[in-house]
Amino acid sequence: MLRALSVIIGVIAITAPLSAQQADLEKNDSTRTIDVNQAASTQWVRSTKRVLTPREIGIFPFRGLQSYLPLLPGVVGQNGNLYVRGGRAGEVGYLLDGAPVTNRFFNNEGVTLIPEAVDQIEVYTGAYEVEYGGANAGIVHSRMRTGGEEFEYSLRIESDDFAKPGKEFLGTTAFGYRNIVGTLSGPLPYGVKMFLAAEHHYLRNRQAMFLEPFRKEGLVTDSFGVRPPGTPLPGSIDFKRNYLPNNWCWKNTLQGNLLRKLNPQLELRFTGSYSLEQSPEGGNWPAALENYFRQRRNMLNETRTLFGSLRASHSLNPKISYNLSLSFYDRFATLSDPDFGDNWQLYTDSAANAEKGYSGFTSRYRGPSAYSTIFMFLFNHPNSPNTRYTKNSQSRLSASMDFASKLSDEWDIRGGAALELWKMRSYSVPYIPYLMEYLNGFYGSSPRKFSSDLERRIYLARYGGIDFYGYDVDGNQVDSGLDAPRKPRFFSSYLQNNILSQDLKLSVGVRYDVYDLRMPMPEDIERPPVDDRFNWIEESKLIEQESMSIFLPRFSASFRLSETISVSAALGKYAQMPSLATLVLSPLGLNSTANPFVRSGFEYFRGLVPGYFLKPEKSTHYEVALEHQVKPDLAVKIGGYYKELIDQAQLAFHDTTVALPWLVVYKNDGAGTVKGIELGLRLHYKKRLAAELYYTLSEARGKGSHPRSNLGPIAYYYPFPPRYPEFASPLDYDQTHRGTLLATYEFQPKDGPVLKGTGVTLLLTFNIGHRYGKEEEIRYLGSASPWNIGVRSLIDPRVVQLAEPPNNSSTPWVWNLDLQARKRFELGFGSAELFLNILNVLNTKHVIN
Questions:
Q1: What's the pLDDT at 180?
Q2: What is the dihedral of CA 589, 591, 596, 600, to 10 degrees?
Q3: Distance between CA atoms of residues 849 and 847, nearest Å
Q4: Distance between CA atoms of 384 and 365, rounded to whole angstroms?
Q5: Of 153-157, 463-467, 843-847, the least confident
Q6: Bridge partners for 56 per DSSP
Q7: What number is the average pLDDT over the span 93-118?
Q8: Strand pairing of 138-144 and 92-96?
Q9: Where are any strands of DSSP class E within 206-355?
Q10: Is 415 in a helix, a strand, or coil?
């Protein structure tokens, strides 16, 4: 996978009066900075807290939180995931205006703030204090802008869509990128202040890669398929340069808030967000080749997200204040056929497909056969139906309370508590043609009869492979009974003492977290209750997983050695549960894994692994840092950290006395260590120039990079007793060297009307590459084909024969240069800014996987 260059041209039009953000750009003093770490030596800010402001975000040549965070020290961005100081993917917690927006089902960011709506983003990458929890590696707290005393509005338009697909513009590839953002803010009646932002985002080709154009004509079938050899393919194959057809995506987002100060001591704030996004599945490489002739039938991903929070802040007196917050979150996603939508029973029905103009079915519920060419490379028939359907939702209600009390000039305490109530639903039909033939017969004329609803439910789940909870076996939403949604609950509370003197800040606190997952499980895993009539787990006799709790102490201290030098130290214990998508099992999943009479040792290959033995994953973080304000416009910071990772989720054999079949489960068997040094150099604006340099030297080692890292040894030794070695090796995302250089040059009014308002930003990023282990040449083809043997170890880890210790090698170094140039114009009605973003200025090809 390679990253291609892109040129983006845009304009920002901002009306009078200037917003506070834009007015700040007009300042010309030594305090201006592009610092992404707001901590100055005179401020009491922990070394792990870094702040992104609208000013910094505005000069980045790209958009999105997931693009900003890898610029910070200690953060690795790889394959679309974030790894903070050696933590696994999904170990970052997210908040928006004080309310949690982490989707615990996936452990990812549930709500993404529009960049133009950002007031600031606080990023904690280390030993943060007890106020925050639920994440082992880091915290991202986004805060939304609010309305002011006067009406302001802005419009931002940017695009690289100046060339047709496969063509170049200014010597580089266009990806059909378009982004439009509008904001509106100001006062409303009754003293309410309003802020609103709306964004439309579109990409014609969402996978940036170098692809040489090629065209193949006259291809015919070989002798390895079901079609007669020599049968012509439906047409020629024509791929344009760096372009994948039918690989678009779009997203519409609406966000805003209402602020009302009832009196100087009481403030109410409502924050809301809504987004809807769509994209087809099957257009990425290399699936785009296999689906070349059936692009119009590619399945459609659609996700809707809704969030709202109400927060009250009240000061009882100058020494005591508190916050009360209520919030909700709701996400609903589907993967469906573009013609039949949620009516999955018609997906493979030849009669229903004929009405849509799709012919060539080989039977009532079997679509046209694929074309085999060039030694068994398969191309799907243009009318091939989709054979699966999924939908899922995660909704949450949460409440929290925080207070602060100043007991004296040098002593204050803070505390709080929070509760999250989740409701999770999932429904998946992976084998529609098999299920329809089971229900209606091979020709669709022999409907099957069942003796009871229970028998129908069990047999449909079994023969159709239907995974469901929160929905019944037919996909209808239910809220009670055997098919009720999963309802995990999370509770937390904290208390912290802060002692602040002229030269010392000391914080000591403790956090108490409760994890009540409430997942159904057998009381006796070795002898689960089984209904002999259907050979099915008796779900009515299952019990709920017991709740778990943990105390997490934390400590931090800051010392001011002089007016220009300060040091800090911190340590803390952290805990979180793995993503619930890893742990939650449907009735079918429970039966397939727990029922000893049907259990197969290879269910875990499909991801069906019980997680009810898991406790929270834990980490202990130690760090020290020193910051020196060398000159008023130059600051240096250096810090070191050490991190112990324990109780990480990992595949394991359950210690059962039942001889066979062995039961593979998730257990807290993983562990690792992380250590590193972070260096930061910050040059404030001096004669128009400002710069930031960040460098991280680190090492991350452990038993596994994710819960299924040891799938190969587990699968290789099954069904024999596990006797494979366990040792620490570099993790997949370990990067010894990683750095960022951000520099900007701003022309001043005295440079003349042509250069006035002009600025240039350069962003250089570098890292050592991607960890991997060299393998011996594959000697046995097995079930591999010439089309996948090169990546066979990614498909089946049992075939791996390493030629060196795991992850002992790295891909070549990655050096990337991005640029933004901008020009601001003052107009009679306000101002406008024209900008040019160039990604990968040198058009360098890097192996990133």
A1: 96
A2: -40
A3: 6
A4: 11
A5: 843-847
A6: none
A7: 96
A8: parallel
A9: 214-216, 237-239, 249-263, 266-281, 299-317, 320-336
A10: strand
Burial 530-552 (b: 16+ CB within 10 A, else e): bbeeeebbebeebeebeeeebeb
Beta bridge partners of 331: 305, 394
CA distance 750 to 281: 54
In angstroms, rounded to a whole number, what is the distance separating the alpha carbons of residues 77 and 600? Answer: 37
Query: What is the percent of the chain with per-residue pLDDT over 90, rounded to a whole number?
Result: 63
Three-class secondary structure of residue 227 per DSSP: coil
Helical spans, DSSP H, in 244-295 = 287-290
Question: Which of these, 429, 349, 350, lies nearest to 389 by C-alpha position?
Answer: 429
pLDDT value of position 35: 32
Average pLDDT over residues 266-290: 94
The mean pLDDT value of the chain amounts to 88
- Give the end-to-end CA distance of the chain in Å, rounded to a whole number: 6
Name the β-bridge partners of 674: 643, 700
Q: Does residue 643 contact residue 86 with C-beta atoms inside 8 Å?
A: yes
Q: Are 82 and 66 in contact (CB under 8 A)?
A: yes
How many degrees, rounded to 5, is the angle at CA 543 between CA 538 and CA 546?
155
Nearest to 812 by CA among 776, 777, 778, 844: 844
649: alpha, beta or left? (left if phi > 0; alpha if psi -120 to 50): beta
Contact 460, 428 (CB under 8 A): no
- In this structure, which amino acid lies at residue 313? S
Nearest by Cα to 770 from 726, 798, 805, 730 = 730
**Is the CB of residue 403 less than 8 Å from the CB of residue 414?**
yes
Per the document, the length of the chain is 849
Q: Which of 617, 622, 514 is nearest to 574 (CA)?
A: 617
Query: Per the structure block, which two tokens stand in for 647?
Result: 């109780």
Judge whether residue 40 has pLDDT over 70.
no
| Least confident span in 249-263, 442-456, 555-569, 595-609 | 595-609
Report DSSP state, residue 805.
Answer: S
Q: Are 258 and 184 in contact (CB under 8 A)?
A: no
160 with 8: CB under 8 angstroms?
Answer: yes
CA distances for 412 relative to 407, 560, 618, angstroms: 5, 20, 29
Place 169 in a pLDDT band, splitting at 50, 70 and 90: confident
- How would you classify residue 595: left for phi > 0, otherwise alpha for psi between -120 and 50, otherwise beta? beta
| CA 88 – CA 110 distance, rounded (Å) | 18
d(CA 92, CA 75): 11
Do 86 and 298 touch, CB atoms closer than 8 A?
no
Nearest to 697 by CA among 680, 673, 676: 676
Where b means 16+ CB within 10 Å and e means fewer, 309-333 reads: bbbebbeeeeeebbbebebbbbbeb
Contact indicator for 643, 675 with CB cutoff of 8 Å: yes
Could you tell me the two tokens for 692? 């930031």
Are the C-beta atoms of 766 and 736 separated by less than 8 Å? no
Q: DSSP of 334-397, one letter per residue?
A: EEEBTTTBT-GGGTT-HHHHHHTT----SSSS--PPPEEETTTEEE--TTPPP--EEEEEEEEE
- Candidates 215, 219, 214, 145; CA nearest to 183 is 145
Read off the tokens for 337.
């056929």
Give the Cβ contact number of residue 567 at 10 Å: 16
Q: What is the Cα gyration radius of the chain?
A: 29
pLDDT per residue over 486-523, tens digit each?
999 999 999 999 998 888 899 999 999 999 999 998 88
Cβ atoms < 10 Å from Cβ of 747 = 17
Instruction: Give just the sign of the alpha carbon dihedral 786, 790, 794, 797.
Output: positive
In the predicted structure, residue 5 carries a pLDDT above the cut 60: no
How far is residue 757 from each of residues 35, 276, 320, measured CA to CA in Å?
A: 20, 36, 46
At 408-460, the pLDDT tens digits run 888 999 999 999 999 999 999 999 999 999 999 988 889 999 999 999 999 99
